[in-house]
Design a protein that fits this description.
Layout: E1 2-6, H1 29-37, E2 39-45, H2 53-64, E3 68-73, H3 80-97, E4 103-107, E5 111-112, H4 117-122, E6 128-132, E7 134-137, E8 141-144, E9 146-149, E10 155-156, E11 166-167, E12 171-174, E13 176-177, E14 181-185, H5 186-194, H6 204-213, H7 220-231, E15 235-242, E16 244-246, E17 250-251, E18 258-259
Parallel strand pairs: 2-3, 2-4, 6-15, 11-18
Antiparallel strand pairs: 1-3, 4-14, 5-16, 6-14, 7-8, 9-10, 9-13, 12-15, 16-17
């Protein structure tokens, strides 16, 4: 695991607007600067893949704002839980020398995000908050990488095939969230480690089931979310923070299917959508 941490740069003279999207641009310049200085942005990647151009451009903006960014090499060929574990170690090591850091934002290298995405997530100051990252498969079409409970209390991934529309803004509490674009407070990680938990380690019983069935029901993200649930840490999604996910083609929730008039607290996922096991 190799992490390259970009040091802070001098804060440029910037006139921050006050009319942009909540919550980041509602901060004063001093509040925004404090937010930037309290957040470590980490990007895991593989040598053969590199970074998406949009993400590389955003890194330039983050550097100009004085943010600290760590690019972390994945040396394990897809064993993501190991890479996440190395990221946690790097984050806590950095925090020991930089006590003002109290949250980490993880952004996968195959995404493009708005320049202010990490700060909009961090500004909520909740234990765990994710942006909206979508992916695709033949059965479900485009679906969002988080789960919410339907009208029957079953946790499901909202898909464009069935749920059709998602709110274009607002904060909602969710059952689980992917780790492709996520902000985690340091206290969450420290609490897990104090309880003898490895935040992203996939439980052995899930591995055994996978060896029998050929399907891994839990990834490292679901394992992390279940530990959050066990410890009482709520998980949220900021529906306004949208990533473009680059697979064979760029994937995001269709813009025409984002309704900015929907109250996120009244929005429901379809009970036809894929059930989270």
């Amino acid at each position: 695991m190799k992490a390259v941490i970009t040091g802070k740069q001098k804060q440029p003279e910037v006139e921050y607007g006050k009319e942009s999207f909540q919550p980041t641009m509602g901060l004063s310049e001093e509040e925004f600067q404090s937010l930037v200085q309290s957040t470590l942005i980490m990007i895991p990647h593989r040598t053969q893949e590199g970074l998406q151009a949009g993400l590389a451009q955003a890194m330039g903006v983050w550097g100009s704002l004085g943010a600290t960014v760590a690019t972390v090499m994945d040396n394990f060929g897809g064993f993501v839980e190991m890479t996440r574990g190395g990221m946690i170690r790097t984050f806590l090591d950095y925090c020991r020398d930089n006590p003002q850091i109290d949250k980490v934002v993880m952004i996968d290298s195959d995404e493009s995000v708005p320049w202010d995405a990490p700060f909009r997530l961090a500004a909520w100051d909740v234990p765990v908050v994710s942006g909206v990252v979508c992916t695709y498969n033949d059965n479900r079409g485009v679906f969002a990488c988080f789960t919410v409970k339907d009208e029957h209390g079953v946790a499901r991934f909202p898909s464009y095939n069935f749920t059709k529309t998602i709110p274009g803004k607002g904060l909602i509490k969710v059952h689980s969230a992917g780790t492709g674009l996520i902000c985690i407070k340091k206290t969450v990680i420290e609490t897990m480690l104090d309880r003898g938990m490895q935040p992203f380690y996939i439980p052995e019983e899930q591995r055994l089931k996978a060896s029998e069935t050929g399907m891994l029901a839990w990834g490292e993200d679901i394992a992390f979310c279940r530990r959050c649930e066990e410890l009482g840490f709520d998980i949220y999604v900021d529906l306004s923070v949208q990533a473009v996910h680059f697979k064979m083609m760029p994937i995001t929730w269709p813009r025409a299917a984002m309704d900015f008039e929907i109250d996120p607290q009244e929005w429901c996922v379809s009970n036809k959508d894929y059930r989270h096991g």
